[in-house]
Amino acid sequence: MFRRHFLLGAAMALATPYVSRASAAEPNTIFYNAVETVDDTSLAAKALKLALSKCATKYSLQPSPTGYPTQSGAMNALGNGGQLDILWVGTEKSLAKQALPVLFPIDGGLLGYRLFLINAARQDEFSQVKSLDDLRRFIAIQGPGWGDIAILRNSGLTVRTGLYKNLFRMTVGGRADYFPRAGFEALNEQAQHVGEAPGLAVESSLILKYPFCLMFYVSKSRPELQRDILAGLIAAHEDGSYQAMFKADANIGKALTAGHLDQRRLIEIPNPNMPDDVAAIDRRYWFSV
Predict the structure, then answer these.
(1) Which of 116, 157, 266, 281 is the 20 to 30 Å CA partner of 181?
(2) Nearest partner of 246 among 37, 60, 47, 103, judged by Cα
(3) Taken in order 269, 8, 183, 74, is the CA torsion positive or negative?
């Protein structure tokens, strides 16, 4: 059985509830990266909307005038005065130099429970993987600038990169052997992309785990936004609406049922880029198998 740990009580030390004093005459616009999907298929978007619904200040979400297809490009825009106010990305130490972190694991750390998208014809090869040394024989693929790259390479795993839209075809086409994806991403993406990448499958025997989570980062020019979002997330957990949203999410639900996370062979690796303040978040906020 899964042991699902959700926030049930007190907030983190840095998470004192904050009520904005800004005038509510007009909604405050928040520009998110225009390449993101902001609908009910996105856990982060739903979490953001829920958090903002708990705020005294009324905000309006709008796509950025420029869309940034890579994480590094988007973070550069966020940190250097581009018309971008918020990103949701996998956390790493360097990001705090460019933006303000909202210290809350949106996904409970499920981002660090990795299933592999592979060419279905190669399942037998992966079924023979028993250890990290065995996995090092294979080539992973990720998007440019993704925080996972440094984590994987730190453990001696080979990683190639490509634009997200191409990664599924590159995987089945042999440019890489496996595409590590969070459990709540892998099954959904396989269903979405198997038509364009015939043979794309979710590997059935392994799970690669490392400390990692999805978090919001906001522009350093918007500290009030950082405080409001954090306060909203905490309020949502305290009243149970966050837990309800999380468990009702289709991708999360699929990962926890069809993903069979507790039945897979576990390979654990460290994350040298995990920020200390994120690692210190109370363990009640985190999912575990």
Answers:
(1) 281
(2) 47
(3) negative
DSSP string computed for 118-171:
EEGGGHHHHHT--SHHHHTTSEEEE-TT-THHHHHHHTT-EEEE--HHHHHHHH
Per residue in 63-98, pLDDT (tens digit) is 999 999 988 899 999 999 889 999 999 998 999 999
User: In angstroms, rounded to a whole number, what is the distance separating the alpha carbons of residues 194 and 191?
Assistant: 6
- Host H or E run for residue 115: strand 113-119
Tokens linked to 239: 């009243």
3-state helix, strand, coil in the chain (%, to 5): 40, 20, 45
| Residues near 3 by beta carbon (within 8 Å), at least 6 away in sequence | 288, 289
Per-residue tokens: 237: 């957990």
Tokens encoding 201: 């499958």
Is the model's pTM score more than 0.90? no
